Amino acid sequence: MQTSDTAAPSFLAAAALVMLNSLDLTTVASLGSATTLLIYFLVNLGAFRLVRDNALSRFVILLSVLACLFAIVVWLLYTLKYAPASLGIFAGFIVLALVVEVLMQRLQGRRIKAQNLQ
What we know:
By secondary structure, the protein is mostly helical. It has four helices and no strands. 83% of the residues lie in helices and 0% in strands. Helix 3 (55-82) packs across helix 4 (84-108). The radius of gyration is 18 Å and the shape is flat.
């Protein structure tokens, strides 16, 4: 019998297998690229908020935020034109991730608190 610590990874592995076996490789690669770009964008945006000391670091991080945002927009425009179903799948993944996060917060009683960046 699985514990709650292994249930989520097992479910994710099963979902990944279903996705890999039901979608073509181009769609899977496109979704993986978009997910990676979104994660890089969010991490760089967080880094930009945290870095206060060095103006050069803020500039470099801002460039990386803008580059990721540009790449995401290019992906969105290309996907909208040539593979709109992939865009729908990606949007579904984003919504699913947000719903799961809200449910996990409620079930586990945890809250995400904003940090004081002073």
